[in-house]
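Handoff note, outgoing to incoming analyst
You'll be picking up this chain. Sequence as last confirmed:
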Amino acid sequence: MPVALLWVIRGGSGGLGAGLVTGVMMACTVLAQLSMRRVLAGLGWRWTLVLGSGLLGLPALGHLASDRLWSVTALAALRGLGFGVVTVCAMTAFAGPRRRGRAIGALGLATAAPQVVLVPVAPWLAERAGFGLVFVLAALPALAIPLAWPIARAVGDSGRGPADGSGPGTTAALWRALSGPIAALVVITASGGAILTFTPHILASPALGFFGLLAFTGAAAASRWAAGGIADRFGAAAGIAPLLFTGALGLAAIGLKAGNIHDAPSRVLVISGLLLTGVAYGGLQNLTLAQAFTAAGEQVRSSVSIAWNLSFDAGTGLGAFAAGAIATATSYSTAFALLALAVGLVGGFWALRRLARTRH
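Most recent structure output, in case you need it:
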């Protein structure tokens, strides 16, 4: 994703254009996730996985033809649809409640570990070896298409989607139960969307961009794994407020120097902020999902998975688009300061709620 955004900026679009690309991709991801029940019911697991893997990988080759905003946005839309299909399929089942935190952590590590390498390396590789090589490598998810057959057999391809309760009353009750963890998820993923979209542009040089994204993704991967054990031992809710405050601190550090990184102390502060925000970003992905399962109950497990994925991707897209719009109108420092404020406010809500419960 960072390379596609650098590509569209190189084609003449500014930060607003880059934010639009991320926003469209995440909107299409959400659209795919909303449609997953019908898709699974109509296609079954095997062909749904084939569709998701193909859409996630193959459109990347289209970037070789054009760096215009309309082209990059259209390709991002296709890849967003594929991403939505794959993420929901990956999260349909977890271990029992006693080990769910570790199970979510294992899934998170499996998805985050490649990001630790690929997200920081990709912009550097694009500048050194050319954008074309990165776009060819970005088509690799299509190689997972043959795995659809054994995966479908493993999950029991009945040709039907998830079967938990639905309806207006159930949906309203579900979202009420999930409002707390979803609020925490949305503000931190909005921050992550802004970071993944604009860090290479803010840090300017390929080397700094590499180390900045490595700090963010590496911390996120480690934190997402470690948070699983915390959730299983102490409960997911206990760690949400501290991680939100950690993220707010990191975002504030980024905002202080996002518009001026010409000296070593400024660079250290921004990269330190990326590290702290990465800790919050990874850990909260685990804890908010575990807390969402706890709050909603086992009988709506697949609905919780879809709601969590929707909120994750909506937050990512909203954060990238809003940060791009604010940075275009004012500055990156203002954009990250506002993100820090939003994360801190939600952290305060969680801290007050925990305090009220301990008093009772």
